[in-house]
Amino acid sequence: MKAIRLHAPGGPEQVVFEDAPMPTLQPGDALVRVLASGTTRNELDWGPTYTDEHGRSRTPSIPGHELCGIVEALAPDVAANNAAGNTGSAVTDITPGAPVYGLTSFFRDGTAAEYIAVSAADLAPKPTTLDAIQAASVPLSGLTAWQALFDHAHLKKGQRILIHGGAGGVGTFAIQLARFIGAHVITTAHPRNIELVKSLGADEVIDYTKQRFEDHAADLDVVLDSLGGDTQQHSWRLLKRGGVLVSIAGESIEQPAPELGVRGVFFIVKSNRGQLIELGKLIDKGHVKTVVSTVLPLEQAKKAFEMAFTAGKFGKIVLQVTNS
Question: Which residue spans within the chain are E strands per DSSP?
Answer without folding.
Answer: 2-6, 15-19, 29-38, 66-74, 99-103, 115-119, 123-125, 160-163, 184-189, 204-207, 220-225, 239-247, 263-266, 292-297, 316-320
